[in-house]
Amino acid sequence: MKPSGSGATALTDRLPPHVYFLVSAVFHYLGPAFAVLLFAHLAPLGVAWLRIASAGAVFALWRRPWRYHRRLDNRERWVVAGLGIVLALMNASFYLAIARLPLATVGAIEFLGPIGLAAVGFRSQRNLLALALAIAGVYLLTQLRFQGEALGYLFAFLNCALFVLYIVLGHRIAAEGGAEGIDRLGAAMLVAAIAAAPLGLADALPAFRDPTLLAAGIAVGLCSSVIPYVCDQLAMARLPRATFALMLALLPATACIIGLLVLHQAPTARDRAGLGLVIAGVALHRQGRRDLIPSLPSLTSPSPPEGGRGSG
Fold it and tell me: CA-CA distance, 183 to 83, in Å (whole number)?
């Protein structure tokens, strides 16, 4: 039984899954850009916890995931709990990275893991060329400069690895469709809020004495974790994992644009060339039956055959 009605499901299915991805791509870095502005008042881990906790509160009020959680078996609960822990660590490492490095640099490094995941699913020369263009673009964007802020790069690459786990586990919980996936995501976000509390709750306490800071932290949670993650679920439910992973090539582009507009981090000529290669790779990519990679089994039902659900 799905918590949302068939009318709501039909409404979400009416829009192409790529629309949900594009909305997610914008908010994926818009929220963190606002978070960077909060670092002058709160430590990065405090902002990260506020983001996770406020998102968990929104999901709790909206979806009441504890009611859905009672219907899960032990294996399903482990997947949800695992995603929650990944979300906690991923957000913490991401915020520690963007406190030390430009947003676009962290965004480009974040993409290196997913592009490797996408490579597993490519079987055509056209898609291999698309992948090569995207890799070249990410290379130009990162410029592979690791001196000066070694700790920042360490956190950025840790976030990259955790982002891959988020994609894999996100597709697991999205296997039953958008509404079911959102309920599982809500349960995972509550787990994330608890898991992240030892890391950031103490640093977040000053916000509870300042209504403006608290409201800003809640807004960061909405922009960073509610809107993009819900859109991710609606996109993942209808896109092959390989297609979704390659489309993540847009994230360095959105990171550069938002970094420029919000944080005034202007891209260089090399950055712009990298963006062009990344976007060309996405445009060249062709989705088809041979793009599908062997997906992990669904939580409650066998994996669909090639050309079934997830074929976009």
Answer: 13
Residue type, 123: R
Q: What are the boundaries of each domain within the chain? A: 21-291
What would the two tokens of residue 297 be? 């089994």
Q: What does the pLDDT look like over 96-109, one tens digit per residue?
A: 999 988 888 887 78
Q: How many CB atoms lie within 10 A of CB 71?
A: 10
Instruction: Determine the Cα angle at 290 with ends 287 and 294, to 5°.
Output: 110
For residue 198, name the pLDDT band (cuts at 50, 70, 90): very high
Residue 264 zone, left/alpha/beta (φ > 0; ψ -120 to 50; rest): left
The pair of structure tokens assigned to 266 is: 């202007």
Q: Which of 235, 179, 229 is nearest to 5 (CA)?
A: 179
What is the sign, positive or negative, of the torsion defined by CA atoms of 73, 79, 83, 86? positive
pTM of the model: 0.76
Task: Give, as one character, the DSSP assignment of residue 102.
Answer: -
CA 230 to chain centre: 10
Q: Within 13 A of 198's CA, how many CA atoms are on the CB side? A: 4
First to last CA, the chain: 23
Residue pair 4/177 in contact (Cβ under 8 Å)? The answer is: no
